[in-house]
Amino acid sequence: MFERRAWEFHRELGEKYGPVVKIRGPFGDTQLFTFDPLAVHHILVKDQHIFEETSEFFVANRLVLGIGLLSTNGEHHRRQRKLLNPAFSTNNLRDMLPLFYRVAYSLRQAIASSLRDGPQEIDAMSWFSRTSLELVGQGTIGHSFDPLVEEKSDPYGEAMKSLIPTAWPMFIFQMLLPVLDKIGSPKLLRRLLEVTPYPRLQRVREIVDVMDCKSQEIFQEKKLALERGDEALMQQVGEGKDIMSRLLRANMTASEEDKLPDHELLGQISTFFLPERTRRRLY
């Protein structure tokens, strides 16, 4: 169903059974598969508050990303969204255009430099992938992953790119997470995770550790810059115009009931790198 090469199966479902199909999921779970435009509109846009994600979805995102938009629901989610929505306003997004232009010019310069010795074949996909990561990094969290002028890898960027391809083959085990999440303390679960002899799971643990470490570093840098004032913010990559800087600034001036604790602000950092799902949960 979720394989990259499953399009033939999807087409067969539609041709044989129509736009809404009841199927059996893992462990006998009953699921509805639909590509009816009206149904999809109600699920994703009009009535999304009715069609909540599963408990496995929330637990998995909390364990991997922290307590952000993708791991909360109900009133908790609405409180986070209330603080985040202004950061995505048209004016704020327009202010980020100079950042995007700067990255685009860096890409142009990098490609031109690689062609200095004459026409040659270049890997456009690689360049655009690096550029996309840099655009998201500067625009959302004010962090530069790749100067685009040299071959350089960033541990956080590499971790984010590896997360879904590494974790996706373990999708079926996600159904066990709500049960495992209740059997002990986070410290105990962490210990069990470390001794589990499953290489792919250990690789996911390493990726999440890198993400968490770098997220905390970026978060502390942002907080320190805010405390020092606007001049310090202007010296950072995002010049204080990135979404994370705006979020922290809004949180400082919010009322006590609307303020988010640091661990929830921290949980937004990696969440911003999953734009498709974030967009649905944000709006």
Task: Outline the low-pLDDT stretches.
Answer: 276-283
User: How do the strands line up in the largest sheet?
Assistant: 1-2
**Tally of extended strands?**
2
Rg, Å, rounded: 21 Å
Give the overall shape, derived from the CA principal axes: globular
Distance between the termini: 27 Å
GO molecular function: heme binding; iron ion binding; monooxygenase activity; oxidoreductase activity, acting on paired donors, with incorporation or reduction of molecular oxygen
Cofactor: heme
Pathway: Secondary metabolite biosynthesis
Family: Belongs to the cytochrome P450 family.
Write structural notes for this entry.
It is built from 15 helices and two strands. By secondary structure, it is mainly α. It has a two-stranded antiparallel ribbon. Strand 1 and strand 2 form a beta hairpin. The longest helix is centred in the C-terminal third of the chain and has 30 residues, at 199-228. The chain starts with 6 loop residues before the first helix and ends with a helix.
Secondary structure: elements and pairs:
Layout: H1 7-17, E1 20-24, E2 30-34, H2 37-46, H3 55-65, H4 74-84, H5 90-95, H6 97-114, H7 124-141, H8 155-167, H9 177-180, H10 186-195, H11 199-228, H12 230-234, H13 243-253, H14 262-271, H15 275-282
Antiparallel strand pairs: 1-2
